Amino acid sequence: MGLAGDNAGFPFSAKLSAAPSPRFCNPMSRRIFSDVAGDITVSVDGQSFLLHKFPLVSRCGRIRRMVADSKDPDPSKLELVNVPGGAFAFELAAKFCYGSNFEITTVNVAHLRCIAEYLEMTEHYQDENLIVRTEMYLNDLVVKNLEKSLEVLCACDGLDPMVEEVGFVDRCVDAIAMNASKEQLVSGLAHLECDAGSGKLRMHCQDWWVEDLSALRIDYYQRVITAMRRSGVRPESIGTSIVHYAQTALKCIERRHVWDSGPLVGDNQRVVVETLINLMATEKITAVTLSFLFGMLRMAIEVDAGLDYRIEVEKRIGLHLEMASLDDLLIPSMQTSDSMFDVDTVHRILVNFLQRIEEDDSGDSSPCGYESDGLKSPSHSSVLKVGRLMDGYLAEIAPDPYLKLQKFMTLIELLPDYARIVDDGLYRAIDIYLKAHPSLTESECKKLCKLIDCQKLSQDASSHAAQNDRLPMQMVVRVLYFEQLRLKSSFSGGHGHSGGGEYCSFSQRITMPMSGSGVPSSCVSPRAAGAADSYASLRRENRELKLEVSRMRVRLTELEREQGMMKQGMRDGRPGEHGRAFLASISRGIGRMAMFGPSGERRKKGSRATASSQCSEGKSRRRKKTSVTYA
Questions:
Q1: Half-sphere exposure for 457 (CA within 13 Å, toward CB)
Q2: In what order do the strands lie in the sheet with 47-51?
Q3: Which residues contact 539 (CB under 8 A, 6 or more apart)?
């Protein structure tokens, strides 16, 4: 569109008839007329323009005032400072003053509007001055078109603060939001289809402006998204736009190390990350994927974003942690003296998840005031998924030699008991940690292994634990005992109640609280009759238990030797015979533990009584036979 009246929509004044096309002498000195000598030199950002006073003062209020206020009656040099758009914008304004032909476009309209405001090119000095011309272009062409509004807003970069003062940015932002909303509505109605099979409505439309918004400056982008939310643009489209903007703006991000003492290379990226996180929080944008949230969390850690922004992303991840993958949780640590992975971040995410589960369970409580049980909670499936996820995570971070025991145990203890149906994954993670940290003390190993519920171990895990030298002896004994109970219950079938009773008596003897004198507190009640006999029987059972533990240690040594023989047999091609012998030896060794306690003594006495009765019956038969013979 030419300034000399190429388009009827913009009636510019007639250009000077004597003015030929402009010709530039050199980069530092430019002349508009080649046949008339210039009488004033205007310096803009180090560049000089050799011009004429009359065309400038007839349209520019600032230059007219500068010439009038000059001490020199005939000034030949002027210097303009803080010119919006610099030499490029001033050259366009000078062409307009001389009536030269050039086109107003979406690329230069913002520059023209700002330089016109700076030079005070208003209607007070001449009709249809540059301010009016740019406003007409903006109102008639730009604000009615989404694509042109985006182009003009992109061109506003670098024109602060003048572009804000003239309201150019606000009008472009509002135009983008309004046009996007209208276009989305029209496109949705145009592509609205009816599924004849189900009668449901389906909408097929693609927002082309999602990619174009990525070219905006981050502060402009934030204002556009806020305006779109107000104008009713679909949250799914806004979420897609945020994801695309993050991928475009952060694709060249560089990892920051703690030993880098210089200025941060990613300061601009840090502003982008914090702005996008704040935008999702303030505008309540939830239409983003979990993988994108984990990516934003990693970026926030990389660029050293504020803790509040990281916590905001962690809360959003905690709402859908059951859908996360193991790779999502393996976030590298930025601290060189800490563990390889950022365990603290995962800990906070897990806490947020458990808080959400607790809120869901409290909301689903019965009207009578009874809280819902964990196993019957509608969110129990989510807890089970997170339990399996955390077991895998624990196994991945366990080999880290810098991982503190307290952090490792805290992650284990954080999940409730019903989060794990079986403890095989937990046992595997703890075994890996024990192998990678051989410097742990015996008390630390016991404390860590107490977190494993031996009753939740599968048969394979129990067999492995029974031969694991890294486990404390107390845990090996517990594993063998519960494995024996499992074998007995499987063989007895319907007679499994006796096994439960033995388990109760055995667990009572192991975990019974003791009084100050060393006697179990349940046996020192003043109401109990025969306290001395009970105390003596408990001491006797304690001695028997110690004796059985000693026997088990000896038997474990034998099992290790038989295991070596089995491995040798497998190498020789005879795995079946040695395998059966090894299982039989395990059964014989574990079967001795069934003799613990009074029940074992009663079984021994019963067997002796049966044997004596059989012997007496045999003798009586022999007597009868003898009497018949001699009769």
A1: 26
A2: 29-31, 47-51, 40-44, 77-80
A3: none
Q: In the structure encoding, which two tokens stand for residue 532, read together?
A: 């001395």
Q: Which helix (H) or strand (E) holds 344?
A: helix 343-363
Chain-centroid distance of CA 202 in Å reads 32
Strands 77-80, 29-31: pairing is unpaired
Banded model confidence at residue 598, pLDDT cuts 50, 70, 90: very low
Maximum separation of any 2 CA atoms in the chain, in Å: 169
Residue pair 121/95 in contact by the 8 Å Cβ criterion: no
- Residue 35's pLDDT is 57
Beta-bridge partners for 8: none
Tell me what the mean pLDDT of segment 270-298 comes to: 91
* Separation CA 496–CA 398 (nearest Å): 38
Collect all residues with Cβ–Cβ distance below 8 Å to 481 and sequence separation of at least 6: 506, 590, 593
Contacts of 369 (CB under 8 A, 6+ apart): none
CA distance 57 to 74: 13
Whether the Cβ atoms of residue 57 and residue 64 lie closer than 8 Å to each other: yes
Give 249-264 pLDDT, tens digit per residue.
888 665 444 334 344 4
Concatenating the DSSP letter of every residue in 104-171 gives --TTTHHHHHHHHHHHT--TTTSTT-HHHHHHHHIIIIITT-HHHHHHHHHHTTT-TTHHHHTTHHHH
* Among 286, 357, 350, residue whose Cα is nearest residue 324: 350
Contact 381, 413 (CB under 8 A): no
Q: What is the pTM of this model?
A: 0.67
CA 348/CA 357 separation, integer angstroms: 14
Tell me the C-alpha distance between 603 and 592, whole Å. 13
The percentage of residues in the chain with a pLDDT greater than 70, rounded to a whole number, is 67
Task: Answer positive or negative: Cα dihedral of 66, 69, 73, 77.
Answer: negative
Residue 243 pLDDT greater than 70, yes or no: yes
Q: What is d(CA 225, CA 229) in angstroms, rounded to the nearest whole number?
A: 6
User: What average pLDDT is seen over the chain?
Assistant: 75
The answer to whether 30 and 49 have CB atoms below 8 angstroms apart is: yes
Are 403 and 397 spatial neighbours (Cβ–Cβ below 8 Å)? yes
Rg (CA), the chain: 43
How far is residue 32 from each of residues 24, 56, 67, 148, 443, measured CA to CA in Å?
7, 12, 19, 31, 91
- Which residues, including other chains, have CB under 8 Å from residue 3's CB and lie 6 or more apart? 10, 12, 15, 95, 96, 99, 100, 101, 102, 103, 104, 133
Is pLDDT of 522 > 50? no
What digits encode the pLDDT tens for the residues 572-586? Answer: 655 455 445 545 545
Sign of CA dihedral 187, 190, 196, 199: positive
Q: Are 321 and 353 in contact (CB under 8 A)?
A: yes
Region of 458 on the Ramachandran plot (φ > 0 left; ψ -120 to 50 alpha; else beta): beta
In DSSP terms, 41 is beta-bridged to: 50, 77
Distance of CA 599 to the CA centre of its chain: 55
83-124 pLDDT, tens digit each: 999 999 999 999 999 888 888 999 999 999 999 999 999 988
Q: What is the mean pLDDT of residues 331-347?
A: 86
Q: Could you tell me the two tokens for 555?
A: 């038997």
First-to-last C-alpha distance (Å) of the chain:
146
